Amino acid sequence: MNEPSYLLPTIIGQFQSPGPEIVSIGPLTLRWYGLLIASAVLIGVALSQYLAKKRDIDPEKIGDLVIWLVIAAIPSARLYYVLFEWQTYAAQPGDILAIWKGGIAIHGAVLGGTLAVWIFARLNRLSFWQLSDIVAPSLILGQAIGRWGNFFNSEAFGRPTDLPWKLFIPLANRPVAYREFEYFHPTFLYESLWNLGVFALLLGLFFWDQRDNSKTTGKLKAGTLFLVYMIAYSAGRVWIEGLRTDSLMIGPLRMAQLISLGAILLGSLGIIWIYVLGRRLPDTVAPSATNKGATSQTDREYNGQHSNHMSSQPPGKADIHPSKRPRQ
Fold first, then answer.
1. Which pTM was predicted?
2. Which of 16-20, 148-152, 244-248, 266-270 is least confident?
3. How far apart are CA 279 and CA 158, in angstroms?
């Protein structure tokens, strides 16, 4: 049984990873990266099911959806990364499936996961945007947790720095151009903290919308939380990516920055579409087909009030149009 060396004075003296492995028993190795991803999934499921109950959506549907998300998001995240690093993996094809060594891209996971949610919503006749709003807080929280996998793998760091919170990177993990430098920006930490801020924002909006107050309850339109996620997360990713030394590139451009700018644009257009123009976002279900849990809280309240009003009418009159009633 081999355990990684955790040197307390080293950890206290400088900010650095203790290593990617937690423990090894024979051929089996438990790694921080895998543990963090698994933890993020479990926490995300619990949180999404809790939020689903608040929106009158069957929590079991969220449990079913998570299976789709895991199957779609993780392979998509890996495929995205491998495609943009194909020169490296073409020479070492055996590492293509070695996801425990790191090398997944969150944008690939989001793209794959979004497609999975769309298909799941159509098959189950649920609102894509309602499901996306429920999942968005868990998604950004999972990203905040998962970024610490980069810390333990000594990857996804930034340019050299002498700031007090500088991160020590072992020589074997440093880019060739920065071999002589020891300390770098802990960009994983910047993004993790930023994501926690976005998580707080999304939860704040969710529970503000749930307040038992006629002035605020049900004010958020379907899709709002996911659109805010797109804008807020991407705004942070744009500037943090600018510090990275290992960005996935398309020519001279950083791919993550391009996608983030596109997400900010699409998210902003979506907010304008539903709040300024007052239109509904294209969805997997028609407005008339949305049922309990698939419409906004405002719609549910209106439907409930309308039903109560109709039930209070005398029998035989509430369902007769005035023009068709017999003359008295």
1. 0.80
2. 244-248
3. 42
- Determine the average pLDDT of the residues in 239-256: 89
Task: Please report, for residues 42, 50, 51, 295, 297, the alpha-carbon distance to residue 56 in angstroms, rounded to integers and kept in the order given.
Answer: 21, 10, 9, 10, 9
43: left (phi over 0), alpha (psi -120 to 50) or beta: alpha
Give 120-157 pLDDT, tens digit per residue: 999 999 999 999 999 999 999 999 999 999 999 999 99
